[in-house]
Amino acid sequence: MSGGRTCLLFNGYTFFYRYKCRMGRKWCCTLFPKCKSHLYLDENNDILQISEFHEHVRNYLHKLNFYFSAQLITMVTGKQVLEYQGYTYYVQQKLKKNSRWVCTTYPNCKAYVRTNNNLYVVEKDTNHSHTKKVLYKTKTGLYTRL
Ligand SMILES: [Zn+2]
Ligand SMILES: [Zn+2]
Hints:
By secondary structure, the protein is mainly β. Helices cover 3% and strands 45% of the residues.
């Protein structure tokens, strides 16, 4: 992945902006052309179409080694949240061995995950009452939802 470019995080995979066409704005997997997965977003960055067929591990896996790992990301607001399968969570309870995270739209959404100290998800209820938001990684390395 080229450094400094804004990329988009969706479902644990990263995408870069390629071009605008009749379908919308096309974002391709950062492993393009090896991986042909792409998303189409409209002007408001809402997802129009998802074509995901990654045959590779999620881009952050080599760091964490666990398929079910979540990752801590920092939003441009300075808030640190947990990203897991495209949803964001904030810590509700921190215990010695694990933490309980609730959806950032809590109490509107009751989804939660519990992770151990390696951010491995050990327990979860991910029935979100809303759709995924697309996260963007900005040049500074912080994330935002446009
Ligand atoms: Zn891919
Ligand atoms: Zn939720």
